[in-house]
Amino acid sequence: MFVVCDTNVFVRETHLLRKKGGPQLIRLLRAVRGHLVVPEVLRQEYIEQTRLAAAEEHSRIRIALSVLQTLTGGVGALALLDDAGVDRLTLARLEALKPLVHPVIQTDELLAAAAKRSLAKQRPVSKTDHGFKDCLIWESVLRLPPGSEVRFISRDLKAFYENDRFAPDLEAEAAARDLRVVGVTNLDQVVGELQASNPSLDFAALPAFDLVESASEVPERASAALPSDASPRRTGAGEDVSPEMARQGSDWVASRLRHALETVQDQELRVLGYIAYFGDANKLQLFDALAQSGLSRARAQNIAERLSLVGLVQDTGHHYLVPDRELAQAAASLVEGDIIGILSRDP
């Protein structure tokens, strides 16, 4: 199985396959030895669109900080990623996904074929533009190994669809290359298909890639500080602090904050995993087990309540439950070894 994700799906909808079915797709492709198809033109679009999306979010943060400043009369410096920092993270994410990616080399022959298709106004060229990028993507798909199953995830109804279905002429062109290309507009359709076609797959045993990301994807430091004015700042003692010192200080704070957040995330995963593993155990039993793992009862209870507030956990009064079965299986698998070790200890 080969899967092609257009830029809108990969970046805007799933945040580089981190949400909305993206983690499940990664797990399933790894389990069935499937591949993502990322031609160079898509790879560059992923990077560029992630940078633009991050800039939009930064803009919202600046607006919010401006409002906060007028409300409170002041706001501290906040470290944000600049474009280079965002690119580093995007490249790290793509590198982490690399084992899943089927390489498509952008050769001169491939570029020429895409240009020829564009000039001939052959689909996926739309009526409004020459669509060279789309042509390059499609020509890359046509060069996949004969006999391949391909799922083309895109909502570009102008380029790749006709009357709300994947264009028959593109399907026929692919079939002539011994490729079966199925166009879908929703990533969840592919996830559902993979699950249905592999009923014996032990989902809980698959690596929980969606819950724990590689540490290599964390930047060394945030390189842009906010606010961006060059005026000196004063410490609590009253002395002036240069913009450079303020930036270095914000980098140090950001580093400490990342470390603290990683610790908190590990604890949250542990609590979620224990809740999922014990199932209908009452709260007293749950917190007893977590205390044996080294997490204080007060801390465990606080985390469980926060997980309940965001909807990952259901508080029934006497018990905590994980209502999402797939999430419960994945979370339980993360702590199974830890729990077995605790249960096997001598009383």
- CATH overall fold name of the largest domain: Rossmann fold
Helices, by number, come to: 12
Main sheet makeup: 5 strands, parallel
CA-based shape:
globular
Description:
The chain has twelve helices and 13 strands. With 347 residues, the chain is of the alpha/beta class. The protein folds into two domains: 204 residues, Rossmann fold; 99 residues, Winged helix-like DNA-binding domain superfamily/Winged helix DNA-binding domain (Arc Repressor Mutant, subunit A), CATH 1.10.10. The strands form five sheets. It has a five-stranded parallel sheet. A two-stranded antiparallel ribbon has the order 3-9. A two-stranded antiparallel ribbon has the order 6-7. Helix 2 runs parallel beside helix 8, helix 5 packs across helix 6 and helix 9 crosses helix 12. The N and C termini lie far apart (50 Å).
List the SSEs and their pairings.
Elements: E1 2-5, H1 7-13, H2 22-32, E2 35-37, H3 40-72, E3 78-80, H4 83-97, E4 101-102, H5 108-119, H6 132-142, E5 149-153, E6 161-162, E7 165-166, H7 168-176, E8 180-184, H8 187-197, E9 224-226, E10 233-234, E11 240-241, H9 243-278, H10 283-292, H11 297-309, E12 314-315, E13 320-321, H12 325-343
Parallel strand pairs: 1-2, 1-5, 2-4, 5-8
Antiparallel strand pairs: 3-9, 6-7, 10-11, 12-13
Helix pairs in contact: 1-3, 2-8, 3-4, 5-6, 9-11, 9-12
